[in-house]
TrEMBL record:
Residues 161-180 have a biased composition (Polar residues). It comes from Senna tora. Keywords: DNA-binding, Nucleus, Repeat, Transcription, Transcription regulation. GO terms for molecular function: catalytic activity; DNA-binding transcription factor activity; sequence-specific DNA binding. This is Transcription factor MYB62. It comes from the Eukaryota. Pfam families: Myb_DNA-binding (PF00249). It is found in: Nucleus. Residues 18-68, 69-123 form the HTH myb-type domain. Residues 154-186 are annotated as: Disordered. GO terms for cellular component: nucleus. Its main location: nucleus. InterPro entries: EOBI/EOBII-like_plant, Homeodomain-like_sf, Myb_dom, PG/BPGM_mutase_AS, SANT/Myb. Coiled coil: none annotated.
Length: 285
DNA sequence: AAAAGACTCAACCGCGGAGAC
DNA sequence: CGTCTCCGCGGTTGAGTCTTT
């Protein structure tokens, strides 16, 4: 392959046919749509030639799957979809196509773009390395509960079903390991506060969340829920740098992460920098 | 109103896996 | 086996659009 001076054209010397690049025209779209309507999709290289498109098979496939396919959803991702992306990404990482399989009508490209432009942007603004333990915990403990709250707000006006999972096409394919318990998030968020199990008991009094095992405290943590039930992995956690704590938010965290919290004079833990920032940024998404 | 900067997202690229020969 | 082709995936780019100054 060799590019010509015209960036929109690619010349194949072997076949001496001009291959178009760049944005698709209406005419090309129409050709592709009508060809697939008659012959079906697949065998993309052959399809491109047979349809009379001066495009690579790859380009045709991409155009069809990401843009022309009839069942593609348009518009912003719903909070339910965003939540599902966060959940599935925490499980599978950058397996965009796999994640997309659980969001009907959404493409891997769209999800990838969402992650890069929205999620990673938040990480940058907070000076957190996206994918780091700290970021993962931030997502778990602040972002996801906020999405749950959004979902709750949205559905409360239209339905008594807090999560409305049955009615959400985006969630019809949620793996059972990721499915939320019915009604779990109708509870006040404070009831789902993080608990900690300290390996270094001598330092537990400095930590912001009360150990929940005794279940007899009233230190309400505003926005943590318990995503262990969602099948979060614990992979990639650095166990060496700090004494580890396990949070009911599904993460094993090191001490440094809790620099983000502060304690009020009434022994009532409140969210500090990270929580507020994420909270505010969430509203922009 | 205009310029600059930030953001979005469609499209391209390179790579690796699968299957045919 | 090795080679070739096709396909699909994830990473990246850049033109167009939007927002801010």
């Amino acid at each position: 392959m060799s590019a010509t001076a015209n960036p929109e054209l690619l010349v194949s010397n072997e076949e001496e046919t001009e291959l178009r690049r760049g944005p698709w025209t209406l005419e090309e779209d129409s050709l592709l749509i009508h060809y697939i309507a008659r012959h079906g999709e697949g065998r993309w290289n052959m399809l491109a030639k047979s349809a009379g498109l001066k495009r690579t098979g790859k380009s045709c496939r991409l155009r069809w799957l990401n843009y022309l396919k009839p069942d593609i959803k348009r518009g912003n991702l719903t909070p339910q979809e965003q939540l599902l992306i966060l959940e599935l990404h925490s499980k599978w990482g950058n397996r965009w196509s796999k994640i997309a399989q659980h969001l009907p009508g959404r493409t891997d490209n769209e999800i990838k773009n969402y992650w890069r432009t929205r999620v990673q942007k938040q990480a940058r603004q907070l000076n957190i390395e996206s994918g780091s333990d700290r970021f993962i915990d931030a997502v778990r403990c602040f972002w996801m509960p906020r999405l749950h709250q959004k979902i709750e707000q949205n559905s409360s006006s239209s339905s008594s079903n807090i999560l409305n999972y049955e009615n959400s096409g985006a969630n019809n394919n949620v793996p059972s390991s990721l499915s939320p318990p019915q009604g779990e998030f109708t509870d006040t968020i404070a009831e789902n506060h993080c608990s900690l199990q300290f390996q270094d008991q001598t330092r537990s009094d400095q930590l912001p969340f009360e150990n929940d095992n005794n279940n007899n405290n009233n230190n309400n943590v505003n926005v943590c829920y318990n995503p262990i039930i969602y099948g979060y992995g614990m992979e990639g956690v650095n166990l060496e740098e700090f004494p580890m704590v396990e949070t009911s938010c599904g993460g094993i965290s090191n001490y440094s992460q809790f620099d983000y919290y502060s304690q009020s004079s009434e022994n009532d833990w409140v969210l500090n920098n990270m929580g507020d920032a994420l909270w505010n940024n969430m509203d922009q998404m």
